[in-house]
Write a structure and sequence with these properties.
The protein has 13 helices and ten strands. It is an alpha/beta fold. The chain has one domain: Aldolase class I (TIM Barrel), CATH 3.20.20.70. The longest helix has 16 residues. Bound molecules: iron/sulfur cluster.
């Protein structure tokens, strides 16, 4: 492990085969390696990101894990795109502590009227550079509108590996997701793209996802840990253990040295008292204040955790 750490700290890279073997290592060794790499590339700073579920439910895609898919019979709230003023108020509040505020909508696209109303708000929003947009598939025309409105960051998760994706979604393809990311990147946006773990994927799928994200050279990698939702096809899925989650985070840090690794949905429920260990596992960012369809811890508690660990929250910076 010492050789691997010094290779990576000196700019070396791990192979896919080597990364797969990391799952056999003890958690202590992985945490040790991931901490060293996180400190080298990210120092002691931690950024917080918050989101609003700006449009919820009735999504026409059939993602098996998702509470918002119309194919699943869940009790998720259903509402149309929130008023721009409401989104701006939520952003103002979140950005008092967060470095980034994500506007997320259900569905794989927004219509022209919806895009127009969001862009109007972005144009007049004072902290537009701290907003990120997660509104599904993006044509070049929509990307241009978002760019003209001042948006700098696009969020679009890959969810899992290309091999496993067809088993969790049949209404659109992995390549469509990759295509959106590539075009957004080519248009000059920073990219936030990650995945969801604990939905039946193999260790290989996890490693494939990490390498795909590395190849796409995304800026930040949100990592979500599945919480089974009643009424979805995966309602009986066994949640990942806390140690398994920490291992996945550490292995992602070893592969993705330069990316921001953001721990998102499922943190509180699946890690419980082990939440502070995400930073030892290499994370340098968290989502705080609740998720799309589930609640979360309040940001004050998360800030206290970060400060208690001797880390420095990046309040309101980008
Ligand atoms: S993950 Fe996104 S695209 Fe898939 S069903 Fe949920 S809201 Fe729709």
């Amino acid at each position: 492990m010492d050789k691997l750490i010094s290779d990576i700290i000196n700019g070396g890279q791990i192979t896919k085969e080597g990364a797969l073997r990391l799952f056999d290592f003890d958690i202590e060794d992985l945490l040790y390696a991931a901490t060293k790499i996180r400190k080298k590339y990210k120092g002691g700073k931690v950024s917080i990101c918050s989101i609003i579920n700006a449009k919820s439910g009735q999504c026409g895609e059939d993602c098996k894990f998702c509470a918002q898919s119309a194919f699943n019979k869940t009790e998720v709230k259903v509402y149309p795109l929130a008023e721009p003023a409401k989104i701006a108020r939520s952003a103002d509040k979140a950005l008092e502590n967060a470095a980034c505020f994500g506007i997320v909508s259900s569905g794989n696209y927004l219509n022209e009227k919806e895009i127009g109303s969001l862009c109007e708000m972005f144009k007049s929003y004072k902290n537009v550079e701290k907003l990120s947009v997660s509104i599904g598939r993006l044509s070049d025309g929509i990307l241009l509108k978002l760019k003209e409105a001042g948006i700098k960051k696009i969020h679009h998760n890959l969810e899992t590996s290309g091999g496993f994706f067809p088993k969790i979604c049949s209404t659109h393809t992995y390549n469509e997701r990759i295509d959106t990311i590539k075009r957004a990147k080519a248009a000059g946006f920073k990219i936030c793209a990650g995945g969801l773990f604990g939905i039946g994927e193999t260790l290989n799928d996890r490693i494939d996802l990490a390498f795909t994200l590395k190849e796409l050279d995304v800026e930040s990698v949100p990592m979500n840990f599945f919480i089974p939702v009643k009424g979805t096809e995966l309602e009986k899925a066994k949640p990942l253990s806390a140690i398994e989650i920490l291992k996945i985070i550490a292995i992602f840090r070893i592969i993705l040295q330069k990316q921001d690794i953001v721990i998102c949905g499922g943190r509180e429920v699946n890690l419980r008292d082990l939440q502070p260990m995400i930073f030892a596992a290499g994370a340098n960012a968290i989502m705080s204040g609740g998720y799309l369809t589930t609640g979360g811890r309040d940001t004050e508690t998360d800030l206290k955790m970060i400060e208690d660990l001797g880390l420095e929250p990046l309040r309101g910076e980008v």
